[in-house]
Design a protein that fits this description.
The complex is a heterodimer of chains A (256) and B (285). By secondary structure, chain A is of the alpha/beta class. Chain A starts with a strand and ends in a 12-residue tail after the last helix. In chain B, helix 4 crosses helix 5, helix 4 packs parallel to helix 7 and helix 7 packs parallel to helix 8. By secondary structure, chain B is of the alpha/beta class. Chain B has a domain of 161 residues: 3-Layer(aba) Sandwich (Rossmann fold). Chain B contains 11 helices and 11 strands. Classes of the chains: A alpha/beta (256), B alpha/beta (285). At the A-B interface, helix 6, helix 7, helix 8 and helix 9 of A face helix 8 and helix 9 of B.
Chain lengths: 256, 285
Amino acid sequence: MSNLEIHDLNVWFGRDDDRVDAVKHASFSVPSGASFGLVGESGSGKSTILRALVGLVPTWSGDMKVADQSLTRKRPRAFFKDVQMVFQDPYASLHPRHTVDQVLGETLNLHGFDDINNRIEKLLEDVGLGPAFRFRYPHQLSGGQRQRVAIARALAPQPSVLLLDEPTSALDVSVQAEVLNLLSDLRQERALTYLMVSHNLAVVAHMCSNIAVMQAGKIVEVMGVDDMRAMTPTHPYTRHLLNSSQGYKPSQEQSA
Amino acid sequence: MTTLLDIENLRVTFPTRQGEFEAVRGVSFNLGQERLGIVGESGSGKSMTGRAILRLIRPPGRIEADRLELGGRDMMSMTEREMQSVRGEQISMVMQDPKFSLNPVMRVGEQIIEIYRFHTGASKRAAYAKAIEMLQAVSINDPERVMRAYPHEMSGGMGQRIMIAMMLVTEPKILIADEPTSALDVSVQTQVLSIIDRLVRQRGMGLIFISHDLNLVASFCDRVLIMYAGRIVETCAADKLHEAKHPYTRGLLNSLPRLDHPQDRLQALHRDPNWTLAPSVSGRV
């Protein structure tokens, strides 16, 4: 089990005149075994926080802690075992010419596991795919099945933290329900800590107990899920997001 | 209600190595001056229906219909040349992602002017004025700058508004919008929808709104067709969508997480093979 702590995180891209500050002074903490959501519009920096945390963006400052260990530019080997990420688009995040077996086998091999054969079968079973899927290529799988493979790959090194970057936004609602149920079950079984990014407020509310709302790189509000369900945000931007998520209202025409 | 479009038993077929595949299997509906929503999952045939109306299915794909009439004119017997005067002039289509439907190497203004002059033969000056007017109509504040810009300089919401301006510049009678807001953020989505709503009302157009978002369709449209496996399984008034009866529609609605109704587990959809076999419900009124 691992908790996450982010303090005064800044992430930027480019330099001098071209510098873009994607995340500004973000701070939040996720207790061990909890599920924390980041919401906001495209470009608000929510995915960038995940990418900085997992080590995909080198230009950051501030303090990031996983299990009370401060992260440095160079991450220790154990870090990659402990923290894994599931990406948004399962069509893009799986190698088109690797079978499911290769995808999972390579991950297990890189992390130095033995008994790979049995582990692959176990992983497939854990994410609700039968052994029949083992030697298929991604193009032979549906979107939901691919996302299950991506989740199995993330679970392969037995992490304690999963970073979920819009895990269901490329999926149909019925498939989304299945994948979200799978993620809830896995979290309970394995006491995982989730940090989840989504633009869908209902999905985040379903999965997370605490939610940070981001706008233009800043966290404008951190709220409990009950406040969100009660529609009692304090920040006007959160209210705006909540209103927009309620479907189309003709009265909004004037404000457009 | 004046019927703009009347469709009976529309089929779209693709030959495959395993035999014929029917993407749309006998869909019937009509469209008046209303906002008609078509919802369904990926692969349900909703986009294919939209494309088939414009006869935009490439061979070897085939379109068949007992009736495909636009304001009383039979579209199935039209020549390709006649279809060109229908596409963009009588019926326009807005696609999901403006990044893929705008020409990346042509300035926005030239693209709008081109379509307007192609269909009306207006002078360049008149076309320019018309393009500016349309861009203003979709709430673009500085139309002169946008006219000179290339599509990559525009944001997603801006691009989609440009698409709408381009599609409405010829004042078509019918607009087919295929997931026009799926690639956009929620707040931009509201803005784009309100523009479509306003223009459709003002001009007395018919709108076919294709979407996978049930809540959006329920709140935006007048009438809804629910498609499954190439057929219409249910039709209802949009504001009654939440009282829908078909188990497929109910299953889709129940699988949505809801802000106002917390639940431990989401209900997964159990598909009944009989849904595929049941004949298509008619969406004609």
